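Dear all,

This email documents one entry for the complex benchmark we are building for the journal club exercise. For each entry we list the sequence lines for every component of the assembly. Then comes the predicted three-dimensional structure of the complex as a token string, followed by one or two observations. Please use this as the template for your own entries, and keep the labels exactly as they appear.
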Amino acid sequence: MSLVSQIPRFGTLWILCAFSVSVVPLLFYLPVWLWLVAGMAAVWRGLIFRGLLGLPGRWLTFSLLAIGLGGIVLSFGRLYGLEPMVSLLVIAYALKLLEMDSRRDARLTVYLGYFTAATLCIFDQQLTTGLLVFAAYLVITASLAGINQTDLHRQYFRPLKLAGLMTVQAIPLLVVLFLVMPRLGPLWSVPTLGGSAVTGMGDTLRLGAVTDLARSGKTAFRVQFDGPLPARESLYWRGLTLSQYDGQEWTRSSFWSYRRGSVYWPGQPAPGWAEPLVASAPLSEYQVIIEPTGQSWLYALGTSRPLSAGTGLSPDLILFSPRPVNRRMGYRAALIAEDLQLEQSMSPLERRVETAVPDGFNPKTARQVRSWQEEGLGPEAISERLLALFNEAFVYTLEPAPLGRDAVDDFLWQTRQGFCEHFAASYVYAMRLAGVPARVVLGYMGGEYHDEGQYLILRQYDAHAWAEVWFPDTGWVRVDPTAAVAPERIYMSPMELFADDSGFLDDSPLLRFRGIDWLNRLRLELEELEYAWGRWVLGYDNEQTAVLARLLGEVKPERLALFLLAGGLLSFAPFGFRYLFTRTTPSRDPLDEQFVRFQRIMARRGVDRSPGESVTDYADRCVAHQPHDAAQIQAICRTYERARYGGDRVASSALAPLVRSLARRRGRGGR
Amino acid sequence: MNSPAHRSHRILDAVVDAVGGVLLGKERQIRLALACLLSRGHLLIEDLPGMGKTTLAHGLANALGLAFNRVQFTSDLLPADILGVSVFDTDNQRFRFHPGPIFCQLLLADEINRTSPKTQSALLEAMAESQVTVEGETRPLPSPFFVIATQNPGFQSGTFPLPESQRDRFTLCLSLGYPDSASEREILEGGDPRARLAGIRPLLSQEQLQAFQDSVSQVKAAAPVLDYLQRLVQFTRTDPDTAFGLSPRAALALLHVARAWAVLEGRQYLIPEDIQAVFPALAGHRLEGTQGQVAGALVERALNSVDIM
């Protein structure tokens, strides 16, 4: 093979580095066996590099590809979808690494690296991921430089330096493109499989589910209020109402499915039920930045009305987005009231939905409720009786005893210990037995306020379940049975409450040490950074139009083009300047540079050197023209000759000061 | 300031002064001739008769203490007339070699273009090899061996001008030219030039001359100077007005003579000026214009166009 198309040896090393940094972070999201594939490819390439193994033949490559395809189908059950496709990409990248034989192949491999590293952004958009991808790009660019340089075989880090320089030079362009490029929403909203990478609550409630969340310190969402912060005990972030119960699981009723015409969309004519919401003045506005949940519902406080386009409000006052939240997103909402403000009337169909109870479960509870009704207690009184019961005899714990088939019976009359969901679900069940419309609400409660960032942060351990009950004279009201048994759960953060509980915050070690001051500050700073990243970089879509309008006045295609052009020019300006200034000094020898400087000084005074003119002749002419600087000029020329041609070290170091001192002297006599 | 370089510089200056005392107003040519000698090259002087060619050769020979011979080349001169001939010695009953005038240290080959090419070749061969082969026997020439050939300009009738390939064997080609009026007046007022020539005493020994010749190759030629030399040579090769550029042999000769010039200047390193000083004498007889331009113009253009940096 000709030398030109060979891959420089240390270029291969850089390509291996690029392969590792772009593939390893992805592997955490993909099936485990891909670790093996990637590792094998890297080791094989390493052996090829050492000359211990040859390149795989064509048939072997094809068989490996076929095996990889088979593995993907086996793992995912399909070939179409994000994860299968990314897996395929990783396999292709690994095989290309083995196939790489010429410089052309190497270049292709590098480009594959760019693409592969970028796919990481589909899985996760945190600041750390951004930095990771950025670092990966640096290494990949270094590998690109590595395969294109042959004369630097021994300067292993030179390509990285070069890549860094190139990256720095590209930053103005990056900023402009970031500001101007239209956001292609669907590209980043590719649904991920199963949401395994996403923590958050599911859309069903089976007794025992919320407790898992309660041990996690991961961020659920962040809120920034325009006005004052509401009191902690009214910070109920509603996520989802569950109205359907089959004896085991609470699910969302199809009654509340987002029927066309019943949903309120900001900026569109409001359906009848939402008219009072639109008409009333909001208490304040707030912005929520939500982490990916893989679900479509959003979280809102009390009675809130969405303000951002693309977020809807269903008649049970649930905020949702038509597409599942697969990446971090931001939305704004107006707070109308901290409690619920819904129509007081209830249609017979709705009443049937909200009071339905499956037959054949929990006979003991049914008997008890019936006896209360026979005592002549009304809905409010039964509710009070239940809450009093909770307060008297129940224990709040994160590790309740298991419950049997008749879960509510077991909980209410036997174990009598549980977490919010036990209380909420049992309460709603009992109220429904009494014929009172009631439903379970899933959401988050409270939050931690950041003084510096002026925002509220809700973590997974803030997840909560409570009840909503409909009374004829008040309509829907929020009832939190947990408050009856453990009021501190409402007034204290779970942080303080469960600090001693084993397993709590196993996934967020930094949170555990909030007692240590500087660690706590560090954690808050990191949160701050992450929040800014989410708000200003990821959430830029919402602001793009406004920012562009502020920058350009009016957003017109020709102004955008000019703006882009300006960014490009800014990127290339350093090269332009360099080109301009090096034109006059083609030689880079420092002594020559000094002499050229001397020539420039003399040229300003009117003595130009012609190309063939020797140093002495030029010096003579300069002296004739500027006799008052004769000594200086002679010294410079003699020193230059001695240093440049005679290799005199002392003269080398003496030249620059001589030229400087001449530069300081003002030329007299003129021309 | 009593370094060896400086001392040699003083001695060589004295040589130049001594020769300058008889060949007035031609210091530059004397220096070039001396540089040519120090670089172990040979000199061609192209000029009209009576301009002082012989005086220069003789003066140099005297000042350097060299054995001097002069051969007047004529159209009937044969190689054996220069190289020598074996004559049968009746006393010893064997042939004895009678060395020709070439067995000397400084040979003045006067009017070399008047003789036949055959004889010219014999001389040039001896110049290149520093030895002569007569009747199958190779005999070395004395050292140092330096030839100054003179030539009448080619347009004079009855001459055999040297072909280009043979002119290349001469390191430098000088022309003395008419003296300026002041020098001429001094010549007219001065006494017998022959007597003055005879009055020049050797200023240095053979060993010293040898040492000077050896010191030429010690002169440091830094990369930027070599770059300049290469650019200059390259220019003659790419210049559209020049028919043939300088050969690598010419480039090597240029470097040698320039080094010798640096020694004359008392410097231990080469500067572009040294190259510029010897370049016209070195390139003038080697370059030829495509449309009959004067070689001097081509040389000057090369010197003016090529940047020293």
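Observations: The radius of gyration of chain B is 20 Å. Residues 1-216 of chain B form a domain with the Rossmann fold fold (CATH 3.40.50.300).
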